[in-house]
Every structure is written in C-alpha cells, then in structure tokens.
Write a structure and sequence with these properties.
By secondary structure, the chain is mostly helical. It is built from 1 helix and no strands. The longest helix is centred in the middle third of the chain and has 73 residues, at about 5-75. The chain starts with a helix and ends in an 8-residue tail after the last helix.
C-alpha cells in the first residue's frame, strides 16, 4: 500500500466521521429544542392551573364571608370587624 491509498483511507474515514458527527449534533439539537418546548408548555399549563386555583380561592373566601354574615344575622350576634 502506498501513501496515496493510506491518505485516501484516512480522509475517507475522517469525512465519514465528520458527516456522522454532524448528524448526531443535529439530532441532539432537535432533542434539546423539543425538551425546551415541552418545558415551556408545562410552565404555561402550571401557570394556568395556579391562576385557576387563585380564582377559586377568592371565590371560596367570598362565599365564607357571605356565610359568616348570614350566620351573624340568623344568630343575632353583632358582626365583628373582619380583618
């Protein structure tokens, strides 16, 4: 085997490895973007649910306040100042 054939084989292997690494890096980048998108969607969903819970909490507090006022009226107890 002469030097020309050796260099051809080396460059062929290097070229193959370069193409392979390019494809692997592309796949890794696509996977990273997919994971980032999923995390963003998850964060949006969690924010939406948290806001729903905050609204429900406000509604429950308002209902409890109304129930408390009705109990004061029914029992004839003077309404205390609410904090």
């Amino acid at each position: 085997m002469d030097w020309g054939q050796v260099l051809t084989i080396i460059f062929g292997i290097a070229g193959f490895m370069s193409i392979f690494m390019l494809l692997v890096n592309k796949r890794i980048d696509d996977l990273r973007q997919d994971i980032d998108r999923r995390f963003e969607n998850l964060e949006k969903e969690m924010d939406r649910r948290f806001n729903e819970l905050k609204e429900e909490q406000k509604e429950i507090k308002q209902e409890l306040k109304e129930i408390r006022q009705l109990l004061y009226k029914v029992l004839g107890v003077e309404n205390k100042k609410e904090s």
